[in-house]
Amino acid sequence: MQTVNLDPELELAVRVPARKGGTPNATTLQAHRTTTLSPRFYTTNFDELDKLSVEPVRAEWDALIAEFAADTNLRHFKRNDDWSFDPQSLPPALRKEFLDFLVSSLTAEFSGCVLYAEAKKRGTNKDLCALFKYMARDEARHAGFINDCLQDFQVDVDLGFLVKAKKYTFFSPKFILYATYLSEKIGYARYIAIYRHLEQHPEKRFHPIFKWFKEWCNDEFRHGEALALMMRANPGLLSGLNRAWIRFFQVAVFATMYVRDHDRPEMHKAMGLEPEAYGMKVFGITSEICKQIFPVLVDIENPKFLELLRSLRALATDLEVARKQGGVWGRIKAVASQARIVGVMARLLLLPTRSNSLPEQTRLSPAW
Prior knowledge:
Elements: H1 8-14, H2 26-32, E1 41-43, H3 46-50, H4 58-70, H5 92-122, H6 126-150, H7 159-165, E2 168-170, H8 173-200, H9 213-233, H10 242-261, H11 265-271, H12 275-290, E3 296-298, H13 303-325, H14 327-350, E4 353-355
Parallel strand pairs: 1-2
Antiparallel strand pairs: 3-4
């Protein structure tokens, strides 16, 4: 367990409930659970992170920080006349999956808020402290907005409880950069893919939150740009054995998304999306964006890539069934499924990759 104290303005942004004592509600406990697929809270060596310099990309960095300071989304995360929703309009199965999506998204957003706020609080590097202040601000707004949405269903997540009770996973600074860069960029790709699809099929927009996704995912895109510049300014992070770690994190993020999205069939059906086709579209957008910074890219066009993701999904289903079965036989089957999952992941990591030459300028625009 780690103690993290958010700045007062972040506590306000995420609307941390001032609860004393008592048992956390079911939604909070859902967010608190740590599983293979659930969003995690991270910590790192903040002193080592603080030593990274952005001087080699100074011009691009200063322009980006100016965009953060302009705060174009200051008033975006508020309900307006476009917000019209009847919680009773969702069938039970869709309601369950959508609530799971909201809680998972909230936990992921708040995880970023906690990590960035702690990096800002413990840092002395003025460039990075400025960045992490703005990124924590954005993620706090996102988490707070989702919590507001949950209240339509008469539930919420006690974010103050999560700060104190959620298990923290330690990643070295370079792993934090790889993982959070991919998280921010795939978050952009997921949200913009849904937003563009529902623009064309507004009758499938079963909840008003989807109308907020364009500006929302532009925040995620901007966060990824900052992390890309940090890596570009420190080229050792992109060479040697680190190329293998970059490949690993791409595979891990793509595989997690593929499996998790197939666990929400009713939600995708309601939006008119087929999970596999949607996933491959998101992977395509993310891979195209990653050309700005990663020297090695997963070859998502290799037929073996999708074939192995399908195998991974089937094994994840088998594992869940075995765990629910319980008993000696259930545990044996669970161990067997876990071993086969490791084997499939190894095969994914051994697939041929594509080398990528980095462009002269790192920054991109959210043009998808």
